[in-house]
């Protein structure tokens, strides 16, 4: 076959159509070819603008890769508008306003193409086209590498963009391609870019590197999902999200980035799973603006090369880190500005040169079951309005475990600070803070150092082997700023390691609301009167039941088998977690707030009461008592009164269970200016600020509670699980009546059990039907009718006084 000619092999089924023709131009060959024909192009340079409009195969000669050059002077070198096969071609374009390869329609297969061009785009896919592109290379130092636009899609496998003056791969206008094992490098714009509503980019096993810009840029309501991808050696941020962008990174690696590894703002949402972020010059995660959110699970952020915090959350943004590791960084987590929030669960913050957790300017941080090690400061709540909670956390090897200053007011619960060089907890400059069941061991200074008259609250805290003393309350007189003095109750200290009497001891004793439990722990300060008070206060009252005792009572309840399994599963998780902590192991964080759904009278209140008692027996709750409220108890008649009522109810339940019956009534379907929303907002904040102090259970009809949770995602996110209480069957209602009869020394006479079964089967099951309540009301009605019958007898036997007969049943309602 001569150079400059095209051989077309027709593969029709009819013998007379089987023929081979040679054509002087590609355009002529394409014009002559039909669907299914194979066009084999002889080596050479073709200055033609080709348009493939039939399902043909267009290829270069076998064994001569790159020998066929499609290189017109201007325009689009190759346009594909059919489900054709194009392979083994070298495409060159010179038109800055047009792509080198344009795919407009069909599902063509493009393989082993080499595109060296100075065009607007190396490859452009648009409209309804869905190509499969394999092993293609794009080198376009004048424009975009690959552009997928205007609803286009397709799959790109093992493709490479070796250079681009703009983005390596750009997705816009509602396009949605998938990249598999592709490489993008040496671009002057973003490596991967997705922009615009409904635009979506999916990448698996890809690598983006040597980028003079951001490695990945998602903006303008676009979405992207990267799995097992590498982003590294960029000059700008590794990943940038802006303006309602949504990005998911799973099993990815972002490293060697001189700026922010990941920067997102303007209501963007990022989800990271099993992703590593390392060797970044500014922030590992930089999160800005209200509505912007990061959720990281099982991720690692490490090896900062700059002097900035690893995770930065500001301007009202939110970050959630679960089972993550942050290490070898200047600062681990900075949360600042009112409305900003960070939730960190079961995570490790280690090898931190400065502060592991810093909260300032009214921000909030919530840390549960976290481990902070080898930091200058474990956590620092810096100023007024800044707060949150540290719960079940440990700080080991810090200069100072926790610092609270300038009016900040966090809650620190069941936290342990080990071997601080200076102090376990340091409170100054008008700060407050609540420290509950906290422990300091081996401090080089004080265990708790509270100065400047700060009104911190210490309850049931313990210090051991603190070189300068367990507790220091300096300048705590009645004239101190803020009203003077800490509130200290039931705190203890050992008397070893040369403990000396605390400086300003007398001031602390006089001005703070100090229980004598604390004084009893301070050497040389215990009086006879105080000693007797401690003894009286510690005298045991009525012995508390064990969790097994309470679960035994639960098991005696009629029916509710699935409910019993759920409660026992929760109890087992809490108990095993407690034992693991005692053994020095990690314990899973169990969220204890619950949703109870079901009809009235199915035992929800009873189970809530037993649940509280179980948690108290396990040491999770202080008291375990039940406070039952409904809408009327929480919602006031005027602005402001609802928050006060809700706060009061929450305070009554402190140490126990707050049970909100018919909770859906707080959010009616036609709410208008209803104050129920205020009760919900107040409750959510209280649950955040004091999540270890009260267990909240919301209850109501199944359908209504589903609606309530769906329209209040802030509430729904606080509850770990929903337990459904099924309606009692006729047999179970009969058992309840039998229990009531036995309790009140009655018996069911012959035929009464069968009559009750028929009665409960026939009774209307409308909205007013009360299940267990109906059974109890039925028994009471039977006792009343029995009394009316027996009272007419002149003489009565024991059977007369105790047996209930079918005629004692009330009429069906």
Automatic annotation (TrEMBL):
Q: What are the record keywords, sorted?
A: ATP-binding, Nucleotide-binding, Repeat
Q: Where is the Carbohydrate-binding/sugar hydrolysis domain?
A: 41-172, 313-474
Q: Give the protein name, as stated in the record.
A: Right-handed parallel beta-helix repeat-containing protein
Similarity comment: Belongs to the CbxX/CfxQ family.
Q: What organism does the UniProt record list as the source?
A: Streptomyces caeni
Quote the Pfam families the UniProt record gives: AAA, AAA_lid_6, Beta_helix
InterPro entries on file = AAA+_ATPase, AAA_lid_6, ATPase_AAA_core, Beta_helix, Carb-bd_sugar_hydrolysis-dom, CbxX/CfxQ, CbxX/CfxQ_RuBisCO_ESX, P-loop_NTPase
Domain AAA+ ATPase residue range list: 590-729
Organism superkingdom:
Bacteria
């Amino acid at each position: 076959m001569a150079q400059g000619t095209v051989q077309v092999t027709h593969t029709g089924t009819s013998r007379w159509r089987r023929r081979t023709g040679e054509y002087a131009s590609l355009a002529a060959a394409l014009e002559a070819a039909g669907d299914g024909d194979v066009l084999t192009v002889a080596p050479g340079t073709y200055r033609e603008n080709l348009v493939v409009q039939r399902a043909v195969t267009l290829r270069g000669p076998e064994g001569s890769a790159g020998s066929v050059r499609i290189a017109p002077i201007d325009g689009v070198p190759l346009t594909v508008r059919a489900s054709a096969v194009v392979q083994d071609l070298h495409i060159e374009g010179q038109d800055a306003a047009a792509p080198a390869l344009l795919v407009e329609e069909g599902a063509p297969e493009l393989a082993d193409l080499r595109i060296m061009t100075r065009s607007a785009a190396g490859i452009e896919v648009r409209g309804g086209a869905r190509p499969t592109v394999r092993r293609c290379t794009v080198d376009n130092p004048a424009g975009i590498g690959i552009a997928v636009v205007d609803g286009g899609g397709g799959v790109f496998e093992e493709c490479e963009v070796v250079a681009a003056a703009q983005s390596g791969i750009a997705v816009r206008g509602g396009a949605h391609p998938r990249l598999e094992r592709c490489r993008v490098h040496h671009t002057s714009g973003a490596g991967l870019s997705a922009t615009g509503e409904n635009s979506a980019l999916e990448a698996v096993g890809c690598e983006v590197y040597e980028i003079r810009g951001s490695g990945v840029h998602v903006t303008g309501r676009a979405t992207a999902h990267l799995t097992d991808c590498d982003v590294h050696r960029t000059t700008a941020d590794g990943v940038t999200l802006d303006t309602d962008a949504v990005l998911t990174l799973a099993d990815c690696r972002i490293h060697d980035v001189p700026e922010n590894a990941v920067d997102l703002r303007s209501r963007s949402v990022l989800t990271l799973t099993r992703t590593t972020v390392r060797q970044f010059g500014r922030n590992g995660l930089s999160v800005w603006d209200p509505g912007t959110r990061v959720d990281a699970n099982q991720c690692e952020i490490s090896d900062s090369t700059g002097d900035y915090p690893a995770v930065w959350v500001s301007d009202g943004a939110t970050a959630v880190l679960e089972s993550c590791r942050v290490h070898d960084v200047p600062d681990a987590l900075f949360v600042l500005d009112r409305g900003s929030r960070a939730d960190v669960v079961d995570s490790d913050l280690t090898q931190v040169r400065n502060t592991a957790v810093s909260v300032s300017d009214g921000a909030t941080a919530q840390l549960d079951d976290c481990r902070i090690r080898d930091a200058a400061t474990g956590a620092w709540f810096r100023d007024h309005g800044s707060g949150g909670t540290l719960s079940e956390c440990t700080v080991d090897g810090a200069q100072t475990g926790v610092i609270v200053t300038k009016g900040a007011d966090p809650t620190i619960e069941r936290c342990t600070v080990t071997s601080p060089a200076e102090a376990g907890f340091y409170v100054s400059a008008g700060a407050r803070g609540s420290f509950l069941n906290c422990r300091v061991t081996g401090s080089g200074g004080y265990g708790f150092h509270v100065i400047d008259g700060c009104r911190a609250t210490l309850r049931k805290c313990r210090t051991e082997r603190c070189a300068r003393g367990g507790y220091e309350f300096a300048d705590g007189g009645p004239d101190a700023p803020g009203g003077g003095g800490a509130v200290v109750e039931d705190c203890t200290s050992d008397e070893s390691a040369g403990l000396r009497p605390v400086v300003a001891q007398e001031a602390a004793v006089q001005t703070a609301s100090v229980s004598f439990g604390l004084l009893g722990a301070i050497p040389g300060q215990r009086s006879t009167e105080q000693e007797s008070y401690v003894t009286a206060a510690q005298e045991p009252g009525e012995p508390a039941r064990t969790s097994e005792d309470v679960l035994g009572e639960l098991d005696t309840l009629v029916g509710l088998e699935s409910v019993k399994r759920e409660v026992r599963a929760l109890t087992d998780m809490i108990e095993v977690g407690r034992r693991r902590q005692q053994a020095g192991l990690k314990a899973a964080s169990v969220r204890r707030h619950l949703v109870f759904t079901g009809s009235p009278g199915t035992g929800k209140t009873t189970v809530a009461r037993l649940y509280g008692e179980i948690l108290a027996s396990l040491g999770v709750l202080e008291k375990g008592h039940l406070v039952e409220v409904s809408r009327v108890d929480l919602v006031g008649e005027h602005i402001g009164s609802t928050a006060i009522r809700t706060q009061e109810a929450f305070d009554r339940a402190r140490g126990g269970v707050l049970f909100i019956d018919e909770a859906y009534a707080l959010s009616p379907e036609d709410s208008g200016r209803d104050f129920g929303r205020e009760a919900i907002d107040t409750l959510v904040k209280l649950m955040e600020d004091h999540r270890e102090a009260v267990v909240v259970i919301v209850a109501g009809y199944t359908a209504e509670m589903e609606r309530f949770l769906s329209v209040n995602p802030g509430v729904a996110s606080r509850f770990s699980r929903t337990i459904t209480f099924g309606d009692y069957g006729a047999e179970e209602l009969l058992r309840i009546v039998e229990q009531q009869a036995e309790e009140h020394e009655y018996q069911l006479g012959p035929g009464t059990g069968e009559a009750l079964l028929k009665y409960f089967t026939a009774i209307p099951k409308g909205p007013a039907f009360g299940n267990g309540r109906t059974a109890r009301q039925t028994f009471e009605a039977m006792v009343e009718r029995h009394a009316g019958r027996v009272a007419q007898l002149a003489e009565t036997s024991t059977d007369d006084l105790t047996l209930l007969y079918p005629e004692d049943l009330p009429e069906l309602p």
